[in-house]
Amino acid sequence: MAQDGLVVEITQTEDFRFTVHFPQADLMTDEPPPTGAGSGPQPSELLAAAVANCLMASLLFCLNKSHVTSAPLRARAEGHTGRDAAGRLRLTGIDVTLTAPAATPRCLSLFENYCTVTQSVRAGIPIKVAVTDEQGRVIYEDHPSSPSPS
After folding, report:
1. What angle (nearest 5°) sits at the alpha carbon of residue 12, between those of residues 125 and 15?
2. Are 91 and 105 found together in one domain?
3. Fewest 10 Å CB contacts: which of 13, 23, 103, 129?
4. Is 65 exposed, middle or buried (0-12, 13-18, 19+ CB in 10 A)?
């Protein structure tokens, strides 16, 4: 089988608890009660974390290329859930706020477009992105329109 990307394997360990096998390490996931025991992150949290992590990495890459030294970046991802037309629970949006004390206007205008995860997920889930300085002042904000229904 040809591989043109990444491979992750998952094994059920008990009820709704799974072990995600990454090449570098394993991670246990679990659904929150009443379905699971809540003993690990749930898949929706992993998706929100992946979006925020990718955005941080993209911004950091640009800052490093621009020779801008910054205090450690921070991020907060907030997922929103709701029911679809059939009444099934869905992730309806993700709001990400990055704290970047020394972001440049050039990097702020570029970094989102280079985030593979965010741009891929954004095709189906609205993602709002903001960057704040250390005092919490918004220095960048992007509120793209909702994805088009298929």
Report:
1. 90
2. yes
3. 23
4. exposed
For residues 77 and 110, what is the distance between their CA atoms, to the nearest angstrom? 20
Specify the pTM.
Answer: 0.85
Structure tokens at 136: 């919490």
Structural domain harbouring 89: 43-142
Q: Which of 51, 53, 11, 52 is nearest to 28 (CA)?
A: 11
Give me the number of domains the chain comprises: 2
**CB distance 143 to 112 below 8 Å:** no
Q: Same domain, yes or no, for 37 and 48?
A: no
pLDDT tens for the 150 residues of the chain, in order: 445 778 899 999 999 999 999 999 999 999 999 999 999 999 999 999 999 999 999 999 999 999 998 779 999 999 999 999 999 999 999 999 999 988 899 999 999 999 999 999 998 888 999 999 988 999 999 866 555 444
Residues 98 and 74: their CA atoms lie apart, in Å, by 6
Residue 1 lies in a domain: yes
